[in-house]
Design a protein that fits this description.
heterodimer, A: 111 residues, mainly beta, five-stranded antiparallel sheet, five-stranded mixed sheet, globular, B: 115 residues, four-stranded antiparallel sheet
Chain lengths: 111, 115
């Protein structure tokens, strides 16, 4: 399956702490994307990392990609209560535009 | 800004009704997607379209069909609604070419209740 599997399923931390979420996948990819979903809303794209990149930063977000292990991680530094949301990874194979998501990681940041 | 607009935010339909969920995007995207989201099951792909009149089944196409007569519009059709199709439905669109920005843009979702 080309879908990503996120781990852990749920994460609860205090404001100011860092949050790390992991994603594993099975097929070769062109890129891997991370999305965020606030409760009851559509998903919002956070960051995209290409298969030839190992690390990417965007504000408080840091994404790593290890294609040999078929895994990625999303780090949110200095978390805020507003980061409370579900986070999904979507590995994108090069031969199709399909995006398949996993169950996501539900992050709760306590004030 | 890219906009993906779903025709309804909330919808209540009766069992056996034919239901149309409409999605329109304004970014000239080739790809369009329909997902459903249920607690504990994440997002599951129902159908995917990469061009006008072209479609591919996703993981859970049973009970659904789709129509893409124009590039900007992708419709999800529940031929005969059943209570197990009560769910949140999400539409998304993206460019086809992986060499360009290929992130997907989502609509706000349609919460469908079948009674």
């Amino acid at each position: 399956s080309q879908q990503g599997e996120e781990d852990p399923q749920a994460l609860s931390i205090q404001e100011g702490e860092n949050a790390t979420m992991n994603c594993s996948y099975k097929t070769s990819i062109n890129n891997l994307q991370w999305y965020r979903q606030n409760s009851g809303r559509g998903l919002v794209h956070l960051i995209l990392i290409r298969s030839n990149e190992r690390e990417k930063h965007s504000g408080r977000l840091r994404v790593t990609l290890d294609t040999s292990k078929k895994s990625s991680s999303l780090l949110i530094t200095a978390s805020r209560a507003a980061d409370t949301a579900s986070y999904f990874c979507a590995p994108r194979p090069g031969n199709t535009g399909k995006l398949i998501f996993g169950q996501g990681t539900t992050l709760q940041v306590k004030p | 800004d890219v906009k993906v607009t779903q025709s309804s935010r909330y919808l209540v339909k009766r069992t056996g009704e034919k239901v149309f969920l409409e999605c329109v995007q304004d970014m000239d995207h080739e790809n369009m997607f329909w997902y459903r989201q249920d607690p504990g099951l994440g997002l599951r792909l129902i159908y995917f379209s990469y061009d006008v009149k072209m479609k591919e089944k996703g993981d859970i196409p049973e009970g659904y069909s789709v129509s893409r007569e124009k590039k900007e519009r992708f419709s999800l059709i529940l031929e005969s609604a059943s209570t197990n199709q009560t769910s949140m439905y999400l539409c998304a669109s993206s460019f086809l070419n992986p060499g360009v920005n290929t992130e997907a843009f989502f609509g706000q979702g349609t919460r469908l209740t079948v009674v």
